[in-house]
Structures are given as structure tokens and as C-alpha cells.
Amino acid sequence: MHGTFAANMALSECDLLLNIGARFDDRLTGNLEKFAPKAQVAHVDIDASEIGKVIKTDFGLVGDAGTVLVQLEQVLDGPLPSHHDWLNRLHGYADAHPLHYGPVKASDPLLPQFVIEQICRSAGPDAIVATDVGQHQMWSAQYYRFERPGKFVSSGGLGTMGFGLPAAIGAQVACPQTKVAAILGDGGFQMTLQEWQSLPNRDYP
User: Fold this and answer.
1) Which of 59, 123, 139, 161 has the most CB atoms less than 10 A away?
2) Beta carbons of 176 and 167 less than 8 angstroms apart
3) Looking at domain 112-198, which CATH architecture does it have?
4) What is the pLDDT of residue 26?
5) Which helix (H) or strand (E) holds 181?
């Protein structure tokens, strides 16, 4: 629904789809009849009820994702086949259809995508970013260039409005020496803005 052109084409044209530890929710799948139509589906999940729940699964493995990956690595003996042509095709899609929002002039109103890119440049690669729910959440995932794991705090497909501000406060408490940015919409902010009153009494950066 909110992915890049290249990612959507990868799903549409792949012959094997491996899902490790994630649900097939409606935001991911969209029209079930058109979702990954050429692919055999392998699904690894610790919850057995998720296997085959939404998408027909050809290969289901129930277990902890980390444990299953270690076991699969032990089974896959020898070099894997080359996927050079497939990767080149996907890179071609990405080059032909990049994320973009057009040129920005000084006289133009600020575009959210541009603002998020500027936050990224200012905050640096070590910053933690928490989002609320809505279009700003999608723009943050698309236009904030995360370079390190564990830096994007979001409720994802759960759609928990009001999550962003308390999540940012929690991240700051856990990592007091790290920059934390909260990217919020007006609706989500109003749901938990009372948490703001906890900030003046804390020595947060």
C-alpha cells in the first residue's frame, strides 16, 4: 500500500516469498488475489495460527525466527545460486521510479517530505525517531534515511494513534545521551499531549 514501486514489483514478480516473523496484514497484502501471484510462499512465525491465516502458505515453519534462521543456515550447505539478473531488474525499477516530491523553492510552502529529510540531516545517524500514526508515519519510513537498526520506533500496522509522543519520551529515558525526534500528526498528538507535562521535571536533552 505504501511501499516503493520497486518493492511492489518485487512482490508481483518473485517466484518465492519468504516471510520471517511478520503477519500478512491487509496493509501489506491489499487485494489478496493479486498479492504475489507468481510466488510460492514460505512463512516462519512463532504463532502457529498465523501460518496460512491470510495468505495460502506453501511452506510453513513454526518457531522463533532467530532459531529457525540458524537451523536453515545449517541445512543450506554450499553456495547459493546467483540472483544477479533479478537484483539488476529490481535496481532498474528503483532507478526508474524513485521516491520524489519535486523541486522545492524558497517561496513554496514546506512539504512534509522535505521537512523529514531535513530532520534526518540535522539529527544524524544515531538519533532515534518515534512516529505516531498517519501519513507522516509513511513519509518518515520513506524519506528518513535510517542507517542503523533500532532507530525507528513506530506502532506499524497496529495503527496506535497517540503512540508517538510517549514512545519518544520512553526512548529518551532509555537512551538519555541520544537525540530523539518525535514526528507526529495533530490527531495523535492531541490524544496523549498530557504526557508533555512530564518533560519539564526531567533533565532530558
Assistant:
1) 139
2) no
3) 3-Layer(aba) Sandwich (3.40)
4) 78
5) strand 180-183
Confidence band for 178, pLDDT divided at 50, 70 and 90: very high
Q: What is the pLDDT of residues 52-84, one digit of tens each?
A: 999 999 999 999 999 999 998 888 877 888 999
Q: What is the residue-wise DSSP string for 17-74?
A: EEEES----HHHHSSGGGSSTT-EEEEEES-GGGTTSSS--SEEEES-HHHHHHHHHH
Quickly list DSSP for 103-161: ---TTSPPPHHHHHHHHHHHH-TT-EEEE-SSHHHHHHHHHS---STT-EE--GGG--T
Domain ranges of the chain: 5-96, 112-198
The total number of residues shown for the chain amounts to 205
Terminal Cα-to-Cα distance of the chain (whole angstroms): 36
**Any idea which fold 5-96 has?**
Rossmann fold (3.40.50)
DSSP annotation of 1 reads -
**β partners of residue 59:** 42
Least confident window among 17-21, 56-60, 110-114: 110-114
- CA-to-CA distance for 188 and 58, rounded, in angstroms? 39
